Amino acid sequence: MEEEEKVAYIKEVLPAIEEDKEEAYLDRWWRSFHYLFAEEYPDPRSILIELNYTHFGNDALEDERFHFKDQINVLLVLDVSGSMANEIDGKSMLQMAKDSIYNFTSDLPDEANIGVRVYGHEGDSTEQTKEESCRATDLLYDFQQANINDIQDVIDPLKPKGWTPIGRSLEQAKEDFSAFPGENNTNLVYIVSDGIETCEGDPVTAAKELADSNIKSIVNVIGFNVGIEGQSHLREIAEAGGGIYTNAGNEDELREALDRGEALIQQWKEWKEGEIRNISEQIKEQESQAIRSRGEWLDIVADENYNHNFILRALHSEGYINRKAYEYMMSRYYERRDLYKEIRENEFESLEEEIEKNYTTQLEKIEEEYEKIMEEKN
User: Fold this and answer.
1) Phi/psi of residue 143, each to 5°?
2) Quick one: CA torsion of 156, 157, 161, 166, rounded to 10 degrees?
3) How does strand 137-145 pair with strand 185-193?
4) How many C-beta neighbours within 10 Å does residue 2 have?
5) Average pLDDT score, the chain
């Protein structure tokens, strides 16, 4: 409708105001006039949509023991007892274990901390040095981002020598993890051993205590070329520690067992990065919509301003409404214009805050996914 047509239309539907009228009459005339030309303002909050992330662990990981939290700490516990000198296809089992560990640590995400504890590296396999050997379990590489060269420096010199204090090593592991409470960390233990406890320790109880403590660690055991009896014992340790037992008969199987652990950690990283990226993209789209909606409000205010000003001025200039009526109508319009400007500023400021809050909330929910699962587990 052209401007002249709008003016003519008002003359058809609203009476002229040639004489002064009471405010109640002017108010009714204004409300009728405004109803005819008021613009519809979109609700800014309609921009807010529910942000969704894909729950981790359904199709991605079937085993709930590996629903990881934001920080992952992996402790490798390596058997360096005398029996690790045995060879498979001309290569010592210890060297196979070392090479598999190097491969494992080199592929870990930067976000994961790695620690290396060893046992059986002191004394020898005789009764004379048993007490010394059974006491010896050392954290050679304290938790930090994996540096393959540093790890090689501490592991390469190791020679297969002594006894097998698995229980004592797990007791010491509790101290290793002391700075990483399970509330905010996923703490994983991977024991690589070719045999059972030989130092009168109780690794099953130690594994359970480690898992039940505030550290909430998951104790996994890889039995390397272990007999049936040894497999049963090592499996019991893993079950007590809430972890998984894997049997490896040769180097390829050992490397594959460790690679599965690395793959789970990598999968966690990819899921987390993917979900954060997904949420970030949704937030960016909402922010873009908010900017566009701000612009739409400005356009609507401008359109209303033009229509009201043009028509009221035209009616006044033609004598259809007197000066008092004109000034009243314009004052009412300015009230509406100022109100919607204030609403625009407040609503969009609130909207932007809500979008940011929504983003933060979704990031927290991604973390809570782990918390919930781990609480159910325990």
Assistant:
1) -55, 125
2) -50
3) unpaired
4) 7
5) 82
Query: How far apart, in whole angstroms, are the C-alpha atoms of residue 288 and residue 282?
Result: 10
For 368, half-sphere exposure in the C-beta direction (CA atoms, 13 angstrom radius) is 7
Q: Which two three-digit tokens encode residue 377?
A: 């587990």
Residues of the chain with CATH 3.40.50.410: 69-249
Site of tokens 């972890």: 243
Antiparallel, parallel or unpaired: β 113-119 and 218-224: unpaired
The one-character DSSP state at 107 is: T
Q: Looking at the chain, list the stretches that DSSP marks H as alpha helix, in order from N- to C-terminal side.
A: 3-13, 23-37, 93-106, 130-135, 148-155, 166-176, 203-212, 228-240, 251-317, 323-377
Give the containing element (helix H, strand E) for 126: none
Q: Model-level pTM?
A: 0.59
Other CB atoms within 10 A of residue 252 CB: 11
Q: Which position has the token pair 């566009």?
A: 292
Q: Which amino acid is at 228?
A: I
Which two tokens mark 10? Answer: 């008002």
Give the tens place of pLDDT for each residue, 98-154: 999 998 888 787 778 999 999 999 998 899 999 999 999 999 999 999 899 999 999
**Domain 69-249: CATH class, spelled out:** alpha beta
CA-based max dimension of the chain: 121
